[in-house]
Amino acid sequence: MALAIVTLLASFSLIVGGNARAGPATPKGPDQSSAPPAKATVPSGRPTPAINVSDTTLAGWINQPGDPVSVVYDPVDNSVFVANAGANELSIISPRTDARVGTVASGKIPIALAYDPANDDVYVANLGSDNQTNLSAANVSIVSGESDRVVGWVHVGGYPSSVAYDPTDNTILVGTASGNVSLISGATGKVTATYPAVGYIAGLAYDPVDNTVFVTNFTGDNVIILSASTGHEVGSVVVGMNPEALLYDPANDQVYVANSQSRSVTILSGPTGHVVGSVTVGTQPAGFAFDSQNDAIYVANHGNGTVSILSSFSENVLKTISVGGVGDCPAAAAFDPANGEVYVADNCASTVEIIANVLPVTVTQTGLPYGSENEWGITLWNTLYGPFSLTSSVTFLEPNGTWNYTVWSDNTSYSASGGTFTVNGSGVSFSIVFHLVTYVVSFAETGLPPNTVWWVNLSGGPRFASSESTVTFLESNGTYAYLTSAAGYASSPGNLTVQGPPSGPISVNFTALKSSPTSSSERPFFDYPVVLGAVAAGAITVVVVRVLRRPKIPS
């Protein structure tokens, strides 16, 4: 990362004369260049921790506006601040959702960050601005962690390139490209002292046990040690090529040095300043994060898109995690002890990667018919899990947190609701239910008298009836043949296609059935018995009359 900064400085015509020197600087303290490095040791009485990184992996990423180069965690407000050098602003990330929730215009080319817990402020080293008005006198801006607003500006001059916090004196240390270290009071926000160092200062670290300040001389290949009380140089040690970032490890009272052009991390003793170890890591190590829960050290390797995980009690790389590979340039990192995640600023990809211990999440679906034609999946963060067709459950890995998810299926006749789930130290399982998606289908009739009952029959489906002018029911996507009927009336059949909400009702026209008169020659046989019966009845009547009128026999 410092190489990129040097390029920026050169574009500002800042590296001139004696400010940048080729070759290693002459050590001013005990010369450690020829002494064999001692081994890093565990403090007496403290057991070596068993660090399990088998489940530590790249868990996700968050897009940034441009060239994120530094990151810091604010434990008071549970926020992560990201310096976007190319966008001239800070991003604010919520660890609860791992989403960008705000921005702050902090100055031109914000390049380094430090958090002041005593005042809940974030100090920003702006490489290229003086309140955005005077390029020749860059500044430090103060951002309130509570309000996420710039609450002050501090002029240190010399193009600030690194920043660190001294909790002993509540002081912010600012290193510049011109080789000075300025001290800013956390209480007043004013410069209280400026100490001369040497070369281009790419990194700072404060050792509270020994009350010293470690300073990397990027162009001199050494680390200078200053007394935090007097600012006097009390030691210097040769390390690897182009030392950049520094990290203080409180567990061992040791300082770690990222040697960007040596692919190594040098380990220094806090009390003596001597080299006590060295670890080979990835290409161009540029930044650190310290995992206080596991005594693990994360090294951002800017040159090959990886992060190395070291144990603070050994000289071994426990695991190397790729954050994307070619085109990714991790430049800095910060650890969030609240959720156990590491946030990595990747300036080439303009993202912040999230490295975390992940736990199993199992999702089981019901309701979707079994078959290869019915694929389903779940989308979480930027990741799509699926498609799945011949299984009803899926297991994936996620870090601690509460996460939103959506569910999908290529069978649009079914849908399931999304939601949230929470991972908190152990694996979780939950179910999703697919439901058949139905839409309102309407048929509207004409030609029937009021209150006439009529029916709609779908092929292979139910029968719907109504005495109103419309029939309404629910149906899923598909194509159906239909028949409509009413007593004494005729209508035409048809086909119905449901593909999402229909645009309107389907019209049905009923016509009354007509009957024509018949002739006597066409009269059906069953009409004749009626006539014959009538004739017979007439005959009986005649007989009766004739009997009644028979004359009397003469006496």
Task: List the SSEs and their pairings.
Layout: H1 2-11, E1 56-63, E2 68-74, E3 79-84, E4 89-94, E5 99-104, E6 110-116, E7 121-126, E8 139-144, E9 150-155, E10 160-166, E11 171-176, E12 180-185, E13 191-196, E14 201-207, E15 212-217, E16 222-227, E17 233-238, E18 243-249, E19 254-259, E20 264-269, E21 275-280, E22 285-291, E23 296-301, E24 306-311, E25 317-322, E26 330-336, E27 341-346, E28 351-357, E29 359-366, E30 376-380, E31 383-388, E32 393-398, E33 401-409, E34 414-415, E35 419-423, E36 428-433, E37 435-436, E38 438-446, E39 454-458, E40 463-466, E41 470-476, E42 478-485, E43 489-490, E44 494-498, E45 506-509, E46 511-512, H2 528-548
Parallel strand pairs: 29-36, 38-45
Antiparallel strand pairs: 1-28, 2-3, 3-4, 4-5, 6-7, 7-8, 8-9, 10-11, 11-12, 12-13, 14-15, 15-16, 16-17, 18-19, 19-20, 20-21, 22-23, 23-24, 24-25, 26-27, 27-28, 29-32, 30-31, 30-33, 33-35, 34-37, 38-41, 39-40, 39-42, 42-44, 43-46
Summarize the structure.
This protein is mainly β and 555 residues long. It has 3 domains: 2-13 and 65-298, YVTN repeat-like/Quinoprotein amine dehydrogenase (Methylamine Dehydrogenase, Chain H, 7 Propeller), CATH 2.130.10; 359-436, Carboxypeptidase-like, regulatory domain (Immunoglobulin-like, Sandwich); 438-512, Sandwich (Immunoglobulin-like).
